[in-house]
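Predict the 3D structure for this chain.
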Amino acid sequence: MSGPLPNPAKGRSRYTASRASEQPSARRGVVVLPPVCEDLVPKLPPGRDWTDAEREMWETLWTGPQANMWDDSFVMAVAMYVSNTFAVLSGAGSAWQAQEARHLSDRLGLTPQGMASLGWQMAPSAPSGPALAAVPLRGGA
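Done. Predicted structure below.
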């Protein structure tokens, strides 16, 4: 390692993380999201005709776990995500729309990477069936 070692006696060192965004997530804490959001689903923004599939996705997103962390300021971002995602999936979208949908999915916490960067985790789900037993790989007892 090049350069001087951090001085543990100093309260703040330029060699240690000083901003909250640089702290390990264990220090910042993790938000465990409930499995559903029971808040009212906001109306889709006006200005275009929304398809039934887009309306269904809108409803699904606003009742999902991540919506517990969204407020009214997220309406347009979620609408952009829905619009860009459907444009790309229909084959009519551009590379820019695909990139925008990907970035929005991370920023909205819709991907594992996005959830990790936001410090969110899903609540553990209740087991739906019998627990699976661990099976040794090489005949060990």
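The beta strands are 31-33, 120-122.
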